[in-house]
Amino acid sequence: MNDHSTTYGPNAAEFQSEMKPDARTTVAADQVAENTSPAAGSAPATTAPTPHRTVAIIPARGGSKGIPLKNLQKVAGISLLARAINAAQASPSIDRVIVSTDHDGIAAEALRAGAEVAHRPAEIAGDTATSESALIHTLSTLDEDFDITVFMQCTSPFIDYASIENAVRTVRDDHADVVFSAVEDHSFLWRLDDDTRAVAVGHEASFRPRRQDRAKHFNETGAFYVMRTPGLIEHEHRFFGRIGIEEVPPEHAREIDDMSDLSLVRAIASTQETAQVIDVDALVTDFDGVHTDDGAYVDEDGNEQVRVHRGDGMGISRLVRSGVPVMILSKERNPVVTRRAEKLRVDVAQGIDNKASILDAWITANDLDPARVAYVGNDINDLEAFDVVGWPVAVADAHPRVLAAARVILDRPGGRGAVREVCDLIPIPAEAADPLPNPTLTSLRQQPQFTHRAENSRAIRKQVS
Question: Whole-model pTM?
């Protein structure tokens, strides 16, 4: 084991934990041994095969050049790192998921998503370091041996766990030593020679067979590689022995190298990944453009009036009566925001330039997990709040940058039932019968009153759960 490396488990205090073999595997093995013990005078029973153990390793450096901290960029509100972790955790054959990184922020995100962390030393964390060096280093830090290693990359945002599972089973069942994800490719490839003249690669330039008449070609997606661990360690490379392909559909083959790739996959995710349920413990919303249509009526004295949706009030009331903490967080300071918050009986903070800091404070005061908080916004000043929560939500008519950063895009625009829509997507326990006391948070100067509101909300949640 490398002396300057430590592997951390999720939810470990100060990133320290002692990793142990899976207790369920140990128990199952003991039961097999007990059940297969030969009876007196009978022939010895055949020893049960040792269960295969599989580890998924996700290298994630902090020094990406094309997109700074690329692995923490979000697609549909979920970081690229968390998306890879989620895919690995969904595969039944993967026993442990470990992120190899040199960056504290990436390590924290990995732990939040439920993975373990192996801190990578600087000498194998630079631009010239190979992914294989990170894999082999991580394996050297573990307290158990694994038959199969799954190498996954965060730059592929649409990894299907079923494809990983198929690849692992192919290696486990001894049909291959290595299986990698690839997509069928019908391209005619060319290169430039020393005289910058085009030269055909893998085909004859003078012969143009139809697509159906050409041999199948495949392009690596880079999403995952499943390998026998001893072979990886021996060859120090991801390809060796018998190599197989796990063919994936083109929609799963997207890879992110630069900002244009990131923008494209965000647009794809916004149309494909529609949430049926927003599983959160609290809701925070902007006001203008969310509770309203972002317009205002102004009389001759300069007084403003806005239009709100009555259905939104019913949705908020349902959450509040069930003890779900709700807050309106607005950049503008307007008495109408205060009046609306009082009517809805929710917390309110307005005149806020730094929404992220207030949102952080409110989450802490309510004893909430940021990953289980939803924030609904419509404009670019909501993007900082999006980075704080696990469920960034955009109204249908939000700014394009907000739509791209959202985990959920609502069907309704601001002021036209968007708030009611998001409230209806949040599952809640049985509704409380007693009304809540009036909210107490109305300005930055009243932050100490967060605590009173938080205790009240926790008490109600306990009563109705």
Answer: 0.62
